[in-house]
Design goal:
The structure holds two protein chains of two kinds.
Chain A (H helix, E strand, L loop, with lengths): L1 H7 L78 H6 L10 H5 L19 H11 L13 H7 L10 H4 L5 H5 L12 H8 L4 H4 L9 H12 L15 H6 L8 H7 L27 H25 L17 H4 L9 H7 L16 H7 L8 H15 L8 H22 L6 H11 L9 H24 L6 H17 L12 H5 L3 E2 L7 H25 L1
Chain B lengths: L1 H14 L9 H12 L18 H8 L16 H8 L12 H10 L10 H7 L15 H9 L4 H5 L12 H5 L3 H11 L7 H12 L11 H6 L9 H7 L11 H26 L19 H4 L4 E2 L2 H5 L16 H6 L6 H13 L6 H23 L5 H17 L4 H19 L12 H13 L17 H10 L2 H16 L2
Classes of the chains: A mainly alpha, B mainly alpha.
């Protein structure tokens, strides 16, 4: 269970590092015993990494500005109407808060929820981060590696600005309040004043967003913020490029596999998620709580992740690799396990796939994580109207990315990716106003439980499981709203989904003969689906779950 | 070539209709260098006018069947039997009709049975009947089929025989001549001089590594369709495995062969890399063209991912993490006997041309490769004429152990070093006529046996009951399980024993 949870949970964190349990967010230098000097630690002027965001007009003030006890740093409370008062405290606290309502995390023995965004900067002081930079830059020793000053790392692990221009006091916050809510210098005072409160309590956020606050009430706006790091983004005049490319992954950074619905489930909520809540969040017409919107979060997450991935691809294809060290072809665009697999079997499942013409022989499979479920979504009613808009550019792009490496047409790829991203953006805009009622959810669930579903790789299987998870959560929520008790049949579906998860877990490494106690302590495991057998997964895991779902929902319909 | 193009075009249509969108910068850039420079020449091309005769013609004398043919020190006249009954080369063609070959045909979009007639396969699995410029070489289709069916027969290595078959056995005209005159005959009639260690190693490598100029190249598509991996190569171990159908008469000839093979193999690898990068892109699939994955190290990509990762702990030897790396160059063996002073710099330029970005910088790569090849030509030339004795052989062992221990040992390199050490030690145990044996310390011999166990070195030559374990699965697994530290420790131990006898 743990290893698969590792994929949903650990990667939910920026970087998914192994955390030191007692590293306080405000003193990242404890790792280097250098806390006394940290304020002056970064030499000015030197930018390590891509220089496209020089912060002359830095508007970040740091979490300290939000953390007053009377503001957002009050004592922890379970009173939904007072949650706003401890939102900083929840973000900053080291203690587990509560179990999530999300299944993905419940089944993992990770019910301890900690917002790891607060440690995202201090993790850069750890050995593993240093090793990544050492390998990337061919440094002679690990101590010369300085990920904490490296724009490639800081772009996601703290403020997406040239780290040389940002005070360490702000960098050290990691992914603090302003990374999602917007740089606060111009609105921190105003948002506490009466006339401003009156405006946003009426649902009018414009005066504040004009000053740089980000409206995080909608699932869509939140998803876009998450995707900026958890998928990546090209950057612009004010923000650094955020790109976990294959070089970084090979050097030791975990791959990114963003799943909005699952990630929301493992982040302790510092916002009110209850019908009883009061205050600004309640003001937006049609606003739904997270527990009311599992399916919406899943759908929006799929589309937003796809849009972000396409924009990043367009950026990667456009970068001149003679000028920049940005590698091309960019292998992280492709299925990890298209190459990272054993060579032991003949005939192999990959050769079977080639025979079925589903994947060209010996080629890399593009977009295995971000696109299968978007294609599933737009093939379903009522979303079919987007089909024409998106399916064609996406298939064009698939073919372009599957061309032999030497003939990859970067310009055409850039154009197709831009076009497809625009289609995704339109779709996301419309999705924001879509509401999923029980009927819609059940129909989607039945479609997702299509017995012809045959995953061509691990990514596709894992994505389908995440879809089933989200829709199942949504289904169960509506059932409980209607007061329908959850019985044996419901439990059977839950168990069947867990069985799929179990099948998709990466196996542990056999350490029976491992001489080193240190290695055994690290609990080594595979980070790839060793000898992934799509057919076995289909028949032994998905098929039984699909049967359960069909019999349950068919039973409901006949009643 | 046409045949191959057609086939690949066909499969291209099936798989990737859009491969036609090929006007990208990389290709334009690579295309430029392709015009400027032809692919290297095929060293064993032979005389254009010479023709295949088929192994049957050789068996008239070399199968002990001809009462009038007289065995000699060089030719025992039972060569045909040794090859026919024990040598896997004899079975090479049969592989083209195996179930695996049929699977490969389907996957590669070939017609059923096409493997057995396609030049791309026959070039290594039999004699290349289409290579002749003088028309059909054998009297009729039946004879041609018979010759092909024999797999890698006599003429695949010794050269097309029509011009020399009636001459090479005549003492006055050929076989009893002194070396320079005899070598002239080889050149004149297109027989391959396999007693020349450089020529011999080059010839074996043309299939066992690849030689694009000779039409011998296992592309990534072919591997992906199921072609077994090409295992680590060490000339003397491979010859031992065949088993030999010849006698070695010159003293220390195996040691000389080992001393030269590293440089020859390095040159062949660099040529292959440069030639592969000049190949025009064939439509379809991932491979065949610049960036064909087959010139890169299979295990650079094809490995399971681990946490913690041994690769990240080990480092990338100055290369970028996450980029395809070239197949291991047998550096320790290549540098053991002679080391040109400027070679390091040239190799570093070549490495940076291939590592600067994924799949390298095409133009810088060609320039650097040319430089490396010309330096290796010189080094091979001077090493050929360098005298070799027992003391020099021991120094060679010492160097192999030292350089091996200092190198990032991968499985293939370790296998090769083991083979090389075994060959030299065996050579010194069996001195030439009139020379005393200079046997190694038994401790060293037992350490070499331990090295052999670590790399799963085959214990006996091929025989029908002991086919060499070159199964795809076990080769990959051997590499995955290989522990460089243990191997390195043993090399260092041998090194110490040599310095203080």
């Amino acid at each position: 269970m743990r290893h698969f949870a590792g994929f949903v949970v650990a990667i939910a964190l920026v970087g998914g590092f192994v955390w030191r349990t007692a590293t306080a967010p405000a003193s990242p230098d404890t790792a280097t015993n250098n806390s006394a000097t940290h304020a002056t630690e970064i030499p000015p002027g030197k930018l390590i990494g891509p220089a496209n965001a020089l912060a002359k007009d830095l508007k970040y003030i740091g979490v300290g500005g939000c953390a007053a006890a009377a503001c957002h740093g009050g004592p922890l409370t379970s009173d939904p109407s007072r949650l706003w008062n401890c939102s900083y405290t929840i973000w900053a606290t080291q203690e587990p808060l509560a179990a999530t309502e999300n299944r993905a995390i419940k089944t993992a023995d990770h019910a301890r929820l900690i917002d790891k965004h607060n440690r995202s900067y201090s993790v850069l002081y750890e050995k593993r981060s240093k090793r990544i930079v050492q390998l990337l830059d061919h440094l002679p020793d690990i101590e010369s590696a300085q990920p904490q000053k490296d724009a490639r790392c800081v772009a996601c692990h703290s403020v997406p600005r040239d780290p040389a221009t940002v005070p360490i006091s702000i960098l050290a916050d990691g992914v603090g309040c302003e990374l999602c809510h917007g740089p606060a210098k111009d609105w921190i005072v105003k948002h506490t004043e009466k006339q401003w409160i009156a405006a946003y309590e009426k649902g009018d956020y414009k005066p504040l967003t004009d000053l740089g606050m980000i409206d995080t009430r909608s699932l869509l706006s939140r998803a876009r913020i998450c995707a900026g790091c958890h998928v990546g983004s090209p950057g612009d005049a004010t923000q650094l490029t955020r790109d976990v490319n294959h070089d970084l992954i090979a050097a030791g950074h975990p791959r990114l596999d963003f799943s909005y619905h699952a990630f929301l489930g493992v982040m302790p909520k510092h916002w009110s998620d209850s019908a009883a809540r009061s205050g600004p969040a309640a003001m937006k017409p049609g606003f739904k709580t997270d527990s009311e919107s599992h399916a919406e979060a899943w759908a929006i997450g799929q589309v937003v992740a796809a849009e972000a991935a396409l924009k990043l691809l367009a950026h990667r294809a456009a970068v001149d690799d003679k000028v920049s060290s940005c590698p091309w072809p960019e292998f992280s665009e492709y299925d990890c396990y298209a190459c990272h697999h054993e060579l032991g079997s003949f005939p192999s499942p990959r050769q079977d796939a080639a025979k079925k013409r589903s994947q060209p022989l010996g080629s890399l499979r593009w977009g295995s994580w971000y696109f299968p479920e978007v294609q599933f979504l737009i093939a379903s009613e009522p979303f079919r109207k987007w089909y024409e808009d998106f399916d064609q550019p996406l298939n064009e792009l698939k073919a372009q990315m599957a061309a032999p490496i030497a003939t990859l047409d970067r310009k055409a790829i850039q154009e197709s990716a831009t076009k497809a991203a625009a289609a995704m953006r339109r779709m996301a805009g419309e999705l924001e106003h879509q509401s999923f009622d029980q009927d819609k959810i059940d129909r989607l669930l039945l479609r997702a439980a299509d017995e012809n579903f045959s995953p061509s790789d691990w990514d596709e299987a894992a994505q389908r499981l995440l879809t089933l998870d989200a829709l199942w959560d949504a289904h169960q929520f509506f059932q409980s709203q209607r007061g329908v008790p959850s019985g044996k049949d419901e439990q059977a579906v839950t168990d069947a989904l867990d069985a799929i998860r179990k099948k998709l877990e990466f196996p542990p490494v056999d350490t029976k003969n491992e001489p080193s106690a240190e290695v055994r302590r690290l609990n080594p495991h595979f980070d790839s689906p060793v000898r992934f057998d799509a057919e076995a997964i289909r028949t032994e895991a998905f098929k039984p779950a699909f049967a359960r779902i069909h019999s349950l929902l068919a039973g409901k319909e006949s009643k | 070539m046409t045949q191959r193009n057609d086939r690949l075009k066909q499969s291209a249509a099936v798989f990737v209709a859009t491969a036609a969108i090929a006007a990208c910068l990389v290709v334009a850039e690579r295309g430029k260098s392709a015009d400027a420079e032809p692919v290297s020449e095929c060293p064993g091309a032979g005389k254009p006018e010479s023709r295949y005769m088929g192994a049957g013609s050789c068996s008239l004398c070399h199968a002990n069947g001809n009462a009038s043919a007289v065995p000699s020190e060089l030719a025992t006249l039972d060569e045909f039997q040794a090859w026919d009954r024990r040598d896997k080369h004899r079975l090479a063609f049969k592989a083209l009709t195996s179930p695996r070959a049929k699977e490969m045909e389907t996957l590669l979009g070939m017609k059923p049975g096409e493997a057995a007639t396609s030049r791309q396969c026959l070039a290594c699995h039999a004699i290349d009947v289409t290579a002749d410029t003088a028309g059909p070489t054998l009297p009729d289709a039946a004879a041609q089929h018979a010759a092909v069916e024999q797999g890698v027969g006599c003429e695949a290595c010794h050269g097309r025989a029509s011009l020399w078959i009636d001459r090479h056995w005549k003492p006055g005209e050929w076989s009893a001549l002194e070396p320079p005159l005899k070598e002239q005959k080889y050149d004149q009639y297109g027989m391959t001089n396999l007693r020349d260690p450089v020529r011999r190693t080059e010839l074996c490598l043309s299939c066992h590594l690849g030689d694009i100029a000779c039409g011998k190249f296992v592309t990534h598509d072919m591997f992906a369709a199921g072609h077994p991996p090409l295992p680590a190569f060490e000339i003397e171990s491979f010859l031992e495995q065949m088993p030999p159908h010849w006698r070695t008469v010159a003293p220390l000839s195996r040691t000389r062969s080992v001393a030269l093979e590293g440089l020859v193999a390095l040159r062949a690898s660099v040529r292959l890399l440069a030639d592969a990068n000049r190949l025009p892109q064939q439509q379809g699939h991932a491979g065949t063209g610049p960036c064909d994955f087959a010139v890169y190290d299979c295990t650079a990509c094809h490995h399971e991912l681990h946490i913690p990762s041994a690769r990240q702990e080990r480092g990338y030897f100055g290369g970028a993490p996450g980029r395809p790396s070239l197949r291991a160059w047998n550096m320790p063996l290549a540098m053991a006997a002679i080391k040109p002073s400027t070679l390091d710099a040239a190799l570093a330029r070549l490495q940076s041309a291939t590592r600067g970005r994924p799949f390298g910088d095409a133009q810088a790569l060609q320039t650097a490769a040319r430089d490396v090849v010309s330096q290796l030509d010189q080094a091979i030339g001077s090493l050929r004429s360098k005298p070799l004795d027992g003391a020099e052989s021991r120094r060679l062992v010492e160097q192999i152990c030292r350089l091996g221990a200092e190198s990032p040992l991968d499985y293939d390199t370790a296998w090769q070093l083991t083979g090389a050490l075994r060959a030299i030690v065996a050579d010194l145990d069996r001195p030439g006529p009139g020379e005393a044996a200079i046997p190694f310390d038994p401790k060293i011999k037992s350490l070499i046996e331990e090295l052999s166990a670590l790399v799963h070195f085959p214990s006996a030559p091929n025989s029908p009951s002991n086919p060499q374990a070159n199964d795809r699965g076990s080769l990959w697994q051997n590499g995955e399980d290989f522990k460089p530290e243990r191997f390195r420790d043993k090399l260092e131990e041998i090194g110490k024993l040599l310095v203080t006898p």
